[in-house]
Amino acid sequence: MKQFSILLDELQRDGRLSREAWLYLLQRTGKELRQIAAQKAEALTIEHFGNGVFVRGIVEFSNYCSNDCLYCGIRCSNKKAERYRLDEKEIIECCRAGFEYGFRTFVLQSGEDRFWNTGKLCKLVEKIKKDFPECAVTLSVGELSKSDFRSLFEAGADRYLLRHESADPEHFAMIHPPRQSWSKRMECLADLKDIGFQTGCGFMVGTPGQTLEHLAADMEFISGFQPHMVGIGPFIPHCDTPFADRQTGSAELTLLLLSLCRIMDPQLLLPATTALGTLMPEGRELGVLAGANVVMPNISPMEVRSKYSLYNNKNIADPGCAGVLKSELQKKLSSIGRKIVIGRGDHGGRSC
Ligand code: 5AD
Question: Does domain 2-341 have CATH number 3.40.50.300?
Answer without folding.
Answer: no
